[in-house]
Structures
1.
Amino acid sequence: MNGERVIAVYLAETPLSLEQAADAIAGEQSTGTFTAVPGETAELKEKHAAVVEFIEPLEEVDAPSLPGARVSAQHDGKYRRGRIAVSFPMHNFGPSIPNLLSAVAGNLYEMREMSGLRLIDLELPEAFAARYPGPKFGIEGTRRLTGAYDRPVLGTIVKPSIGLRPDELSVLVEKLARAGLDFIKDDELNANPPFAPLTQKVKAVMAAVDKAADATGRKLMYAFNITGDIGEMRRNHDLVVAAGGTAVMVSILSIGLTGLAELNRYSEVPIHGHRNQWGMLTRSPMLGIEFTAWQKLCRLAGADHLHVNGLNSKFYESNESVTRSIRACMAPLLGGYETMPVISSMQWAGTAPATYEAAGTLDVMHLAGGGILAHPDGPAAGFESMKLGWEAAVQGIPLEQYAERHSALKRAIEKYGGRE
Amino acid sequence: MNGERVIAVYLAETPLSLEQAADAIAGEQSTGTFTAVPGETAELKEKHAAVVEFIEPLEEVDAPSLPGARVSAQHDGKYRRGRIAVSFPMHNFGPSIPNLLSAVAGNLYEMREMSGLRLIDLELPEAFAARYPGPKFGIEGTRRLTGAYDRPVLGTIVKPSIGLRPDELSVLVEKLARAGLDFIKDDELNANPPFAPLTQKVKAVMAAVDKAADATGRKLMYAFNITGDIGEMRRNHDLVVAAGGTAVMVSILSIGLTGLAELNRYSEVPIHGHRNQWGMLTRSPMLGIEFTAWQKLCRLAGADHLHVNGLNSKFYESNESVTRSIRACMAPLLGGYETMPVISSMQWAGTAPATYEAAGTLDVMHLAGGGILAHPDGPAAGFESMKLGWEAAVQGIPLEQYAERHSALKRAIEKYGGRE
């Protein structure tokens, strides 16, 4: 580990010079305190200090993005933005995700030297690969378990989000499984609620999945939301596996990256990683974390699938940002850590072509809620329309044209086409 | 649990009316999807829907705080702010912190209906108390273990933050323990690093603590930073306890609230909760979480001590906000959940009077890094000056006047007094 370093790249905004801001970041997160203390030798600093690797100036602005920056009497009224890369010696914290976070994020967001700070990328050394084995299934394992090849893994989210009794859910799941869907996930609002405990849900859902599989020859993958406290998650996982389930789902920000890494230690099925609450960490443009950085930690911690929002979604995020997220998930990390990006929110057959263009691959999971469940001819036609949307995309045929020969797609366009 | 509800209070900003925004929040986090789906019956909505409890209009602004809000052609150019309270039926998720988070935060931060959203408070029903036992030591337990009564628990943070070898740390700790300090914590940057593994650190520190205790008759509380992955944390905790240690420390945002709750299941010593990374969730005024809400979850999950920043700190936060945080920690939660607020950053004897005024109590932990370690007459005088600062505060004697009779305080004022 000697000599190995983590590189953290920040988007920074400061009333100071970018050089002063960079030094403040490096000092705060390694050897600094507000007044020099005994024992802070030159040798210690040499061995443990964070180092500013590069500074790339960007634009200047007239107002601070965040409150509380300290401004001197001589301040010229400008706030300077730039990209700042800082490297940290690995021996300061070792290959530990939680301690990495304290080092590269830590108190930085609160510094008065900054009027904006966002962690935009992380470069991690090999030592992390030895500590965190990462996804056990990834793209190939998910295709093997679903039997879905040569197209995205297509599926839906249980709707209504909340409130179906296990017997009602069972009917819905069997219908969708018989319709040929590859995948269904619980809603993130619905894990192990008192009104429909997971024990009952797993039993009801797996009976439906198995019954449909006997008829169709393919076993639908149902991602049971097992989000919970640490011990509960283990019990939930074991319950799903014992019933023959082939996936579990967690809200990563609810259980933490340590919760995800712990689940990945014993998981026997793919882990479907939901990113609800993510907006809190990213919607303020000069604060928080960029998905590019965060997804690396999710993959290290073992997310086989990772939500990335969708193009033209109901959320605030731009299509450019969604595209960056999909591409980020596909870039190899430490030689592997394959995850399947999960595209969802306001998706339907018609979002396939743009999604294919954005992703540049079929190795994604494409989920439609209403886009499948509320298809005018029922969910089987909804699923069919999604497949047709991707066929058209891959063959480069305009959707309207492809729909002339395919009624499920035509009917989907009639219903959802005017939406945007 | 029937009939019990969680109430979440938000500070919201929207280009819509506050009523429309409130309905969007309630819908997104309970029964909504972008298009009506079969099974969304009136009965289901009645039983599971989130309900808008009140709307309190605040000011209007001319520009959105966050990007990506959708604005109609008829928009009047105004963004309305208000407080919105929404209640959620407990049977939707049960008394589970991780699933509570998915419900009250979830996708809300990403909604295009909002140009700002911040969770400012949570009201939790009794069911949470049955599930989460909370701090095992709290204020009384911490006083018992440190023997510090009738004043704040006073201590310091190991500095330099990073880089001391175990033998160097041992010398420092023994010196500070002999000086009479109640408490020392590891820096948050320093947990179980390869350059000084926790096994060696615990051995070296506890030898120093025990040696000093033999001489002084009081055992210093050293909070070892055991932040790590789930299994590692347990091993680290057991190591500390086996060596006779009396506290462990974790970076709560590194291990997650589930990690904290898990640690609290087996912990045998107080848990010192550090909030590094917190700025990420709170510095953008119209995004994230207010400390008032978050500290409740930390206390439920078991934080015996909880960092709240300090008055006149080196960070961006206003004194009003720090005062609110201290007071929030002191408000009873579900009839208990006592935690000791930890005040730190740029603290010294001179910050005692204002801190006492803000807290209105002595039941706090007051930590000074340089303010003790770099005192011109050494750390014993630094510690003495802190006690004197609090004596002056409690007696209502101006600091300068009290310092006339007390040289340790006088010397502290000479060194640190001009700092602000």
Note: Residues 198-216 of chain B form the longest helix (19 residues).
2.
Amino acid sequence: MKMVLTIFLIIFSLFITFSQASVVDFCVADYTAPNGPAGYSCKSPAKVTVDDFVYSGLGAVGNTSNIIKAAVTPAFDAQFAGVNGLGISAARLDLAPGGVIPLHTHPGASELIVVVQGTICAGFVSSDNKVYIKTLKKGDVMVYPQGLLHFQLNGGGTQALAFVSFSSANPGLQILDFALFKSDFPTELITETTFLDAAQVKKLKGVLGGSG
Amino acid sequence: MKMVLTIFLIIFSLFITFSQASVVDFCVADYTAPNGPAGYSCKSPAKVTVDDFVYSGLGAVGNTSNIIKAAVTPAFDAQFAGVNGLGISAARLDLAPGGVIPLHTHPGASELIVVVQGTICAGFVSSDNKVYIKTLKKGDVMVYPQGLLHFQLNGGGTQALAFVSFSSANPGLQILDFALFKSDFPTELITETTFLDAAQVKKLKGVLGGSG
Amino acid sequence: MKMVLTIFLIIFSLFITFSQASVVDFCVADYTAPNGPAGYSCKSPAKVTVDDFVYSGLGAVGNTSNIIKAAVTPAFDAQFAGVNGLGISAARLDLAPGGVIPLHTHPGASELIVVVQGTICAGFVSSDNKVYIKTLKKGDVMVYPQGLLHFQLNGGGTQALAFVSFSSANPGLQILDFALFKSDFPTELITETTFLDAAQVKKLKGVLGGSG
Amino acid sequence: MKMVLTIFLIIFSLFITFSQASVVDFCVADYTAPNGPAGYSCKSPAKVTVDDFVYSGLGAVGNTSNIIKAAVTPAFDAQFAGVNGLGISAARLDLAPGGVIPLHTHPGASELIVVVQGTICAGFVSSDNKVYIKTLKKGDVMVYPQGLLHFQLNGGGTQALAFVSFSSANPGLQILDFALFKSDFPTELITETTFLDAAQVKKLKGVLGGSG
Amino acid sequence: MKMVLTIFLIIFSLFITFSQASVVDFCVADYTAPNGPAGYSCKSPAKVTVDDFVYSGLGAVGNTSNIIKAAVTPAFDAQFAGVNGLGISAARLDLAPGGVIPLHTHPGASELIVVVQGTICAGFVSSDNKVYIKTLKKGDVMVYPQGLLHFQLNGGGTQALAFVSFSSANPGLQILDFALFKSDFPTELITETTFLDAAQVKKLKGVLGGSG
Amino acid sequence: MKMVLTIFLIIFSLFITFSQASVVDFCVADYTAPNGPAGYSCKSPAKVTVDDFVYSGLGAVGNTSNIIKAAVTPAFDAQFAGVNGLGISAARLDLAPGGVIPLHTHPGASELIVVVQGTICAGFVSSDNKVYIKTLKKGDVMVYPQGLLHFQLNGGGTQALAFVSFSSANPGLQILDFALFKSDFPTELITETTFLDAAQVKKLKGVLGGSG
């Protein structure tokens, strides 16, 4: 009897702590509330379930029937509420033979790639214009330092699959060709700031749907 | 006369700065607005008073009439609005003779303990399974690196009192026994992931009120 | 025809990424939503325009017809919504001959000053009471480490102009004289905590409008 | 001729920038120099090669012929020099049927797991003693918030493989059983701080090789 | 026999992890190696003992036989090697009746004070020149936001004792009077940047030993 | 006499604090010691002078007699030792009429530009391929969020001058054209990852000196 009583005493004396501890444990994104520089607002811990911490969207093969023969399927905080505020996120890369993830950067994160099927030729360029390229085989891991231009390319004859993770819940993704040729970046300004020929710019805007 | 005028000029020319400067000075928690990964929303500076920066909840002796003969009284951001966003918080530890704060971690912060009354046997275990234990006397300070298992125990004959502070406004508190035996963690999974005997698990669940 | 189709496929397969990527690219301040320790809430990317990233308030000469013959015009997150969450902000300093930015600190940031017109005598004091003073000429850059007392003074015969930047979107600004003599800091407490004579305190409160 | 000259001018005028830019691009660990709170010292950029950014140690199946029928193969900054300072790292988990990664924490990081073969029963416990458990199938991703107790268990009939990543280059790994039973943690202190029976403690120390 | 063997297998398979995990657990200061922006270099984990995490220097009453009738005894990373890199530190404040810790700032940290004996009149000034003052009694906790001017004063008739902690391992300490009057800050520049009378400045320099 | 004595008492009682306080105040780069992820090692405070905090390298007009008719003169931590570890740095931009700073990113920082002479057409592209372009006049400030492609161009008839600052002591600088055409990035890989024509790539490599 006394034991039961004392149990209640502990539970009571520590309840105040537990009532808020979840705030620091995690902050599952509440997409209906405002977001700020650190991420989305937190869903009430009472409404959080295990499914908030599990994402199944990377289980399916991405659609590679497109011009790049590749697909990027993100599990960033906008798709995967559980990673909000935790400084990590993921994505799935599918590359058909000859497929390529065109030259791109993640403005807000470093990236780590793990090849789980096929082979992938991966590379990045540093600020001092050194190029670091390696063909990765199954099980190889490569890291791309934050914000640097990098690419992945399937030079092999079989479908390739890789999972990537990022040092931020929302790393961003700026694809060079899309920034230049799938935007309304005026052709004249592109030629002046890249030295590309206008004809080249117009040709790629035609393919990718850019204007200006 | 001219002096008075110039005063107004300064006040006016600098008013725009002051109208927002408090935002960075402090962000007293507004518990009625959404919270995010960095903490609670900020109460309007106009409504902030000195009492938002003072907490008296640690002044009273904690109730040690319980199974652990000890009490933890937190002054985290959920209790002490003024520490929100400032990267620091506190708690009071009361330990009756034989009292113990069971093995626990703070997932989000390092902890610093100062003994102000009695003696406390304190220790932590590092990732490489080294155990660091010392009996602290009045005035001694000990630090527990972030996220590591640690404990406090009053092996002396007199009541002990310590104040602890944390490198976060909300360090969290995961008490090992409560995580295992005061939760609905299935007994079978506990035995498989800790190698504890089922009988031991069931016995402690009986004491602490766990289910599963 | 097939090409056009594949374009749509890319656009679709990547749309989910782009729909949220802006969250990490920038978080333009929405002054109507709650703010938190990390800054203001983010305006919807759909409503963001280039004008959110441009601030023209530093283009006009500040009003130096005041007691300090100087003006500080801030472009902090409260004035310049585009810097919210980006860890940087700016201000314009105008100093007439003999003008001075009185001794002050920025509680939350380091400062970098660039002199673009005239000469400025600039200095700061470190925690070990060393004083670092230099007369900066046009084009000179000086850095003040975070939180330390510093000043700028125009000892030359011509108007001086400088632009400063900060390592925070909201560095704060605590001007020593205003904290002591333009506040309601009780004179008795000022004398006890600064060793200044009461007469000196009262004289400056008279000039700056302090009470208590 | 003039063109060649102007090229040299650009190269020269920008060389000073490039000579140090690598410092921020990356900081490949130099294990022979001192390390600090932020990680290892940086290897000279001139000595860095692509192989510093690629790690092949996760390509081989881990040895699961042990008591836990599982293996953890880390690619932290101590093994994978390229991730030093980048806020990310990885590990490979191999679990034979019935294999288990015992209850553990990563004191310094959140973890993201991707299942690439078999099924894994994964779970964690929050500070408020809620248990979040889910059986993950191939392609599922789960996140464990920083510092919380979690486990992985292969309840299926086939070998399971997962890759995990962390929000730190050195997340640490504290395995509960090893901290208690493979260390020199005195049995009496363990029983006092965990309420486990001495017999249980001694039994597991016997299995895992603990002393005290 | 087989059991013993398998134990060795675990120990071996996990040894590589443990050999470096301490790096993230803690980074005890090695005062003989270079220090950097994040703190001191790390002592080899093999040489670390529990005494690196315990500091007894705050156990003795500080010497208050001085002009301020008070003493500040720091346990920053320069005195307490164990807090290096952990984002927390401490200090002891002793105030005789009438004692005062003069107006000061900590450029790099927020501060939390706990009164353990006597009463202390504590206050700070915010960037918008609001003054927050309260007389703290035994057990009261107060927080001073980072970088703001604050003070502690013993207005009671008995010795006062407080322990303070900081949100940094090295918060710094800039005492206003010492910065102005115990330095070689030229009197003319002080008067120009503070509006204090030269006579006042010279008088306090005489007391505190300043030059210039 | 007694006064002099008490002065010594204060100086002594506080000396221990001051002996290390500079560590947090600043960490002037010591280029002869190892550097790490957080920056360069710190020069001994005893050897630091005001000249470590002042940089005059931005005072001279940059050499714009080159192919881009522009010059970038950095004051990053590698050139300006005083900013090491302070989270801020600067650069000077000179643009002759028609001059351009080609499309580039700063992988590790946000940038703030202030135009002090002439007009500059400035723009950046976000992750969702929106282009933000504005012609800045004297006194205008613009911010570029971290890691995004941006450019500056002098479309006016007169020399233009701007000072830029960054939210890091070493923001890095990756110029798109140099990464592609002044490196040894194999032409075939460039064409595959950018869809540029090989002829275009070879033409620009010829101009900029790239190989591969």
Note: Chains F and B do not touch (no CB pair under 8 Å).
